[in-house]
Amino acid sequence: MNNYPLKKNQDIEIEITGITTEGSGVGHYDGIAVFVPNTATGDVINCHIIKTKKNYAIGKINHILRAAESRIIPDCDVYSRCGGCVFRHINYTAECEMKKQRVVDAFARLGHIEISPEEIIKSGRENRYRNKAQYPVRLENGKLSIGFFAQNSHRVIDCGDCMLQPKEFGKIVSAFRKWIEKNNISVYNEETHKGLLRHIYIRKAFETNQIMVCAVINGHNLPKKDDLIVSLLKCTDNIASITVNENTNDNNVILGKKCYTIWGSDFIEDILCGVKVRISPLSFYQINRDQAEKLYYKAAEYAELTENDTLLDLYCGAGTIGLSMAKKVKNLIGVEIIPEAIEDAKINAEINGINNAEFICGDAPEAAKILAERGIRPDVIIVDPPRKGCAADLLDTIDNMNPKRLVYISCDPATLARDCAILKEKGYEVQKVTPVDMFPKTSHVETVVKLSKR
Ligand code: SAH
Question: 430 with 440: CB under 8 angstroms?
């Protein structure tokens, strides 16, 4: 480390030349990459080095010497402390450009594929687009704190009204706060594993406006529940369901397996691409409903379905993608590993009068192999895997099934590019790519790709 040009606590001047996939700005000082959160490409800053590692350093802004053109004043009081958003200091056009470029770069670097994507589909709402929030409830230095975890930490940043969530969520959190204080309700402590209230969990169906409130507790009984119900119902007329989730586990998983309803319905209902979707506390549902709809419509455009087609929807969750296209095809088969999600998918098919759909609970690579052995040859396959992408043997099976079109939906450009490179080896061509901004102000970007064999 003798020639290392930087020391901890040193102040340096640096130009920010890029943004990492996590949303941090990065510049170079004497060949060493310096990561500085809350900066924008084009910023020239004076920065304080807080950490040095072998190949890189981490700094924080002392002051901005020249602001990037894209820079704006963050509109949230807790922005610099909360771990939720990373792009509140950059305008939305620049944010979307950056996300689109990230997809192009991932394809070039990791897939050696040159792409010219279609325009990124921007989110209609830049704020208040999330339909789900889980607020940890803790005591921080003796003070009741309800909000979000600071980045890489378990310290709760107190924040009643977060701008990513609907306004009503803030009111519901306030009602809980008053109820906790008035009734001396104990709150959870991660170290001692004692205290009752762990999380306040809220979901909203944007199309029907129905709201579900769920108290996640470390125990079996919620005391003073009538008082809580009365206070919650005063927040908004939209509450349709109030439930309790029991989570007595000594780990970081937010929800336990057992839920019961204390007021109203067991579920709320939303409408997505014209399909009714039943949402219960434990079921998976897209966080940004309006963007999910645009994503699904783009996927449908790429799928070019016809009435004699068999459509295979791999990693189908509660079945929403396939169900939104079921009326266009002869058969739909959905595959998903979580049994509860498959139950939801079956219910969603039933309440929509869709009877050409079959849902299979299993591991996607294995289930696809079994389907191939059964002689199923889907005309179109849609895959929407988690961040780690598709397993190599799944890509083999997909190729063996020889679909006319493959639509790949991904939440991670890196694994998407890797998988498209493998598919390219097998003779597939990346024909169209559209990035979709599902999560404004965060670093995430969704992508939908159309592939078919040459
Ligand atoms: N297509 C759905 C869900 C996508 S999220 C939608 O649009 O709503 C990815 C899904 O893949 C999750 O539901 C997850 O439970 C499921 N999953 C994860 N690993 C899996 C595997 N090995 N086999 C099948 N499904 C899996």
Answer: no
| 29 — pLDDT class (breaks 50, 70, 90) | very high
CA distance 183 to 403: 60
pLDDT at 1 over 80: no
Q: Mean pLDDT across the stretch 241-261?
A: 96
Residue-level length of the chain: 454
Q: Note if the pTM is more than 0.90.
A: yes
Pocket test for ligand 1, best of 336, 348, 408 (most atoms within 8 A of CB): 336
What is the pLDDT at residue 195? 97
Average pLDDT, the chain: 96
Ligand 1 proximity of 287 Cβ (cutoff 6 Å): no
- Ligand 1 contact via 315 beta carbon (within 6 Å): yes
How many angstroms does the Cα of residue 101 sit away from the middle of ligand 1? 26
Task: Pick the range with the lowest mean pLDDT from 68-82, 95-109, 198-212, 252-266.
Answer: 68-82
Q: At what angle do helices 392-401 and 364-373 cross, to 10 degrees?
A: 30
Q: Report, as an integer, the average pLDDT of 132-150.
A: 93
Please answer whether residues 103 and 445 qualify as being in contact, where contact means their C-beta atoms are separated by less than 8 angstroms.
yes
Rounded CA-CA distance 256/105 in Å is 40
Report the amino acid identity of residue 296: Y
> What's residue 149's pLDDT?
87
Q: In the structure, what pLDDT confidence band is assigned to residue 258 with cuts at 50, 70 and 90?
A: very high
Q: Which domains does the chain have, with CATH numbers?
A: 11-66 (2.40.50.140), 101-124+288-453 (3.40.50.150), 132-272 (2.40.50.1070)
Confidence of residue 2 (pLDDT cuts 50, 70, 90): low
Classify 64 in phi/psi space as left (phi over 0), alpha (psi -120 to 50) or beta: beta
Ligand 1 centre to CA of 315 (Å) is 4
